[in-house]
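Dear colleagues,

As part of the handover before I leave the project, I'm documenting each prediction I ran so the next person doesn't have to rerun anything. This entry is a single chain, and its sequence is reproduced below.
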Amino acid sequence: MFSLKCVRTGILALIIAAMCLPAYAKSQDYRLGPDDVVEITVYREDELYREMRISSNGSISFPLIGEVKAEGLTTYELERTLEEKLKKYLKKPQVTVFIKEYSTISVTGQVNEPGSFPLRGELSVIEAIGLARGFTKIAGQNDVKIMRMENGEKKTITVKVGDISRKGDKSKDVQLRRGDIVFVPESLF
């Protein structure tokens, strides 16, 4: 017969597993891109172990097969791509790809904890400000700037976060991209 302590432990384990499932599912859908760091292992081929950063052109260089496009692929898709290319050299290669480090966005200016944060999928400006522990008392909430590189050119987007928060219109919130910098200026008054 099960004790009450055993049942509680089992229920707690199920709750924790259920909480982790969305994060796991989200990581399975994550698309690799420049600046992500991946760890690649090939079963029983220790000399092929690599930890590498995906280049700005979205590719990695792997022994035996050379340059491989990784940008836009999930870890599963990259594993299958590498296995297919390695079949010329190895019998039934088994590849595992693990994301060691995600590319980042930065939040600076009048937020409580400025810093760089991993971009593990979709992240909006409001969510990024939340990661930085919200606005300071003197933040210019309707003059938030996103600075990004687009087609080799610097682009600035102004977001009225205060209005979005007050009116609840999430359609005006902007999704961040790799390397974006969110700057929250000081309020003029």
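The first helix runs from residue 4 to 29. Helices lie at 4-29, 75-86, 125-131, 161-167.

All the best with the project,
I.
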